[in-house]
Design goal:
By secondary structure, the chain is of the alpha/beta class. It has 2 domains: 269 residues, Alpha-Beta Horseshoe (pyruvate-formate lyase- activating enzyme); 87 residues, Arc Repressor Mutant, subunit A, CATH 1.10.10.920. Helix content is 39%, strand content 16%. It is built from 17 helices and 17 strands. It has a 9-stranded mixed sheet. The chain has a 4-stranded antiparallel sheet with strand order 1-15-14-13, with no helix packed on it. Strands 3-4 form a two-stranded parallel ribbon. The chain binds iron/sulfur cluster (SF4). The site of iron/sulfur cluster (SF4) has 11 residues, from loops. One of its GO terms (molecular function) is catalytic activity.
Length: 445
């Protein structure tokens, strides 16, 4: 049976569970040596967060600020060095510490100039002990900051993936998304990236921009495809286009129309990429089928055992997720960065959430189910000793009733084509009551 009433398709992008709005101050402020005691450390992920951008894109809800006055980047790198030293001390030397992946994210890591990027790599290598040239290293960049000197540093230090936030090749759409840019500048940045020795190029595009049509969306898709990037991400816009809303007296009608437009653009994008030799990895991610394998897939660093450095980065052990304070409002973000650069003692975890067995199971299920290849039931049983249908029967039956689960053997739980399109409506159903309550009680600032 397929239910006629569908939930709204764009509710919550679950890029990490639990969301930071479910974190709270940790009253006992545990020392990092205690937090990491007994944790596996043979294949950690390292993530360095740079919270600076040249402009604030209209669609952005990430932890970042515009500009960095008064040598703030220098002070930020000084603080990163102190934090890295404290974390490395917390990990101790009783067992070897090995990093399996590394990533620089933001913000815009390439907001840093070439010398500062060298410093950033030095922190990863010399303080944390990551062998950047031997492991996958992913870096995010914007077109104006993807300059030849910065790219040369990154390539020389071992970057294997460069992700460029293009969003749209159509100049009017870039303006509508509050990220004005000239197409010629974007193409020049792509040329510079392809001229370096960084093997994987990812291009981010956004659909649902005010004024975007099927034809103009195709222009961006084809412009991206012309570079044969190894990966393409298609993101739905989440910030409502105000002019679109203004066309209607009834906001509910406007929302429905926008949902249908985004669903249509998604399907067009997916079909066009798949017709051009790409495989779907998730609702957002597409990989060129003939791209050389690049080792671990998880560039988003959501696996257990992650060290996040920087004031917007999270760290994960098996039983605790932690970070610094969180905000999206500009003034609050600036205050958190100012506090971070003034911090001398980084030896404790301050904000976070304890991850018990139930939350770990929800996280595992969400992160597997929202991937096109789905959840291997045997893996789930091995890790949690139970069956996902016993743990999440009502939620999974609701997906099946809507036709969102593919017909597979009993050993794989996979979303159908329709289910993948509704990925952002699926996540919240699997949040625990406690996480839901914490997110609802969080006062956004
Ligand atoms: S470049 Fe990225 S992080 Fe910076 S404002 Fe734009 S979307 Fe946000």
């Amino acid at each position: 049976m397929i239910s006629a009433v569908l939930p709204r398709p764009y509710q919550n992008y679950v890029y990490a569970y639990p969301h930071k709005t479910a974190y709270r101050p940790l009253p006992e402020r545990p020392a990092l040596s205690r937090v990491w005691a007994g944790e596996p450390r043979s294949a950690l992920s390292l993530y360095l967060h740079i919270p600076f951008c040249e402009v604030r894109c209209g669609f952005c809800n990430l932890f970042t600020r515009v500009g960095a006055p008064d040598e703030l980047t220098t002070r930020y790198l000084d603080a990163l060095t102190r934090q890295a030293g404290a974390v490395r001390d917390g990990l101790g030397d009783a067992e070897p510490v090995r990093f399996a992946t590394a990533a620089f994210g933001g913000g815009t890591p390439t907001y840093l100039d070439a010398d500062e990027l060298t410093r950033l790599c030095d922190i990863a290598e010399n303080v944390m002990g990551a062998d950047l040239r031997a492991i996958p290293l992913s870096v995010e960049a914007s077109p104006p900051t993807a300059t030849s000197d910065r790219l040369a540093v990154l390539a020389e230090r071992g970057a294997t993936r460069l992700s460029l936030g293009v969003q749209s090749f159509v100049e009017a759409e870039a303006r509508a998304a509050v990220r004005p840019q000239r197409r010629a500048d974007v193409e020049a940045a792509l040329g510079r990236i392809r001229a370096t020795a960084i093997p994987v190029l990812n291009i981010d595009l956004i659909y649902g921009i005010d004024g975007q049509t099927a034809a103009s969306w195709r222009v961006s898709l084809d412009a991206a495809l012309a570079w044969r990037p190894e990966e393409i991400y298609l993101y739905p816009l989440y910030v409502r286009p105000l002019t679109g809303l203004a066309r209607h007296a009834d906001p509910a009608v406007a929302e429905q129309e926008w949902d249908s437009e985004r669903l249509a653009r998604y399907a067009e994008g997916r079909d066009h990429l798949m017709a051009n030799g790409y495989e779907q990895v998730s609702m957002r991610m597409f990989r060129r089928a003939d791209a050389p394998p690049q080792g671990p897939d998880d560039y988003a660093c959501q696996t257990d055992g992650m060290i996040g450095l920087g004031c917007g980065a999270r760290s994960y052990t098996r039983t605790l997720h932690y970070s610094f304070d969180y905000a999206v409002d500009m003034r609050a973000v600036r205050g958190i960065i100012d506090t971070y650069v003034a911090t001398t003692d980084f030896g404790s975890a301050l904000h976070g959430r304890v991850i018990d067995g139930d939350e770990a199971a929800r996280r595992h299920l969400l992160q597997s189910l929202l991937q096109a290849q789905g959840l291997a039931v045997a893996d789930y049983r091995t890790r949690f000793g139970t069956d996902p249908w016993d743990d999440f029967g009502p939620e999974l039956h609701a997906l099946a009733d809507r036709g969102w689960l593919a017909d597979t053997d009993a050993e794989t739980l996979r979303l159908s084509e329709r289910g993948l399109a509704y990925s952002d409506a699926i996540g919240p159903d699997f949040f625990s009551p406690a996480v839901r309550a914490a997110m609802a009680a969080y006062e956004l600032r």
